[in-house]
Design goal:
The protein is an alpha/beta fold. It has helices at about 5-30, 65-70, 90, 95-100, 120-130, 190-195, 220-225, 245-255, 260-265, and strands spanning about 30-35, 45, 55, 80-85, 105-110, 135, 140-145, 150-155, 170-175, 180, 205, 230, 255-260, 265-270, 275-279. Helix 4 (about 95-100) runs parallel beside helix 5 (about 120-130). The mean pLDDT is about 95.
C-alpha cells in the first residue's frame, strides 16, 4: 500500500470517528422519543440522555427489529425496560423476536391474559427460554429512570370483566417540563375514569389512543390533556378505517399538530426538558 493510499484510508477512519463522536454527543443532549413506523400497531422507543433504552409496546411483527436498528447504534442490543400496554397482537407480537435478538432486562404490564392464543403461547415460551418474568404495575405507581425521566401510571386494570383495550397501561412520562402521555388503546370510558382522578394530565405530546379510533380521545380528555403534538400510530389502508373522522375532528378542535406514522414514517421527538421539537 502506497503512502498516498495510507493517508486516504487514515482520513476516512478519522472522519468516521469524528462523525461517531458527534452523534454520541448529540444523543446525550436530548431525551429522544421515537414513535416507530410498525404499520397498524404501537411501538415507542424512549432513549434517555444517559443511554437508557425504554420500549413501550412491540408492534405486530418483525418490523420492530428493523425500526430499532435504524434508531439505535449498530453495536447496541439492549432494551432496559419493556412496557406492554395490553395483550392485543399489534402491541406485543413483534417483541417475541426482540427477546431473542436483544438483551431485555425488565418487562412490565398491567395484567396477564387469562386465555392464551398461539402468539401468547410463543411469547411465554420465549420468556422461559430467556429467563425473564413480567412484572405487574398498578395505578398510581411511580417509575424513576436515571433520576431524569419519571413516569406515573395513570391507568392499569386487572379486572377480568374488562376487554383488553380497557385494561391498557397508561403512563405519563415527564422529562423536566416536557410531558409525554402514552395511552395504549384506552377507550373513552376509561379516559373518563382518569379525568375523575387526582392526576395531572396536561402533556405536550400525546400518543393518540387506539390508533385514532372513534371510541378514544374524547373531547373532555383532550381538553384536560391540552396536547401540542398528537401522534397517531397507524398503518396505511388498514381494515379498521383508523384514524376515524370523529377522532380527527376532535383532535383538530384541540388545536394540536397531528402527525400519523402512515404519512411520516417514524416520528422522533427530541426534548431538553424545557422544550421539544420534531427531529
Amino acid at each position: 500500500m502506497s503512502a498516498r493510499q495510507i493517508r486516504i484510508y487514515t482520513s476516512f477512519i478519522f472522519l468516521g470517528l469524528v462523525c461517531l463522536l458527534w452523534s454520541l454527543n448529540q444523543a446525550q443532549k436530548y431525551l429522544q422519543v421515537s414513535f416507530l413506523d410498525v404499520g397498524q400497531g404501537d411501538a415507542i422507543l424512549l432513549r434517555t440522555t444517559q443511554g437508557v433504552n425504554i420500549l413501550v409496546d412491540g408492534g405486530p411483527d418483525n418490523s420492530l427489529l428493523y425500526q430499532l436498528a435504524d434508531q439505535l447504534p449498530w453495536w447496541e442490543r439492549r432494551i432496559d425496560y419493556l412496557f406492554i400496554t395490553h395483550w392485543d397482537d399489534d402491541h406485543y407480537v413483534g417483541a417475541i423476536q426482540l427477546l431473542k435478538k436483544y438483551q431485555v432486562k425488565h418487562i412490565f404490564a398491567s395484567y396477564l391474559p387469562d386465555k392464551a392464543n398461539a402468539n401468547y403461547t410463543a411469547w411465554q415460551r420465549t420468556l422461559e427460554q430467556e429467563s425473564i418474568a413480567v412484572q405487574i404495575l398498578k395505578k398510581g405507581e411511580k417509575i424513576n429512570i436515571d433520576n431524569q425521566l419519571r413516569g406515573v401510571v395513570l391507568s392499569a386494570s386487572q379486572a377480568d370483566k374488562l376487554a383488553n383495550n380497557a385494561k391498557s397501561l397508561v403512563v405519563r412520562w415527564s422529562y423536566g417540563d416536557v410531558d409525554f402521555l402514552l395511552t395504549g388503546d384506552l377507550p373513552a370510558e376509561q379516559e373518563a375514569e382518569i379525568l375523575s382522578s387526582v392526576y395531572v394530565l396536561d402533556s405536550e405530546v400525546l400518543k393518540v389512543g387506539h390508533h385514532g379510533s372513534k371510541y378514544s380521545s374524547s373531547a373532555d380528555f383532550l381538553a384536560k390533556v391540552k396536547p401540542e403534538l398528537c401522534i397517531i400510530e397507524v398503518g396505511a389502508n388498514n381494515k379498521f378505517g383508523h384514524p376515524s373522522k370523529d377522532a380527527l375532528d376532535r383532535l383538530q378542535k384541540a388545536a394540536c399538530d397531528i402527525r400519523q406514522t402512515k404519512d411520516f414514517g417514524t416520528i422522533t421527538v427530541l426534548s431538553d426538558g424545557q422544550s421539544w421539537r420534531i427531529k
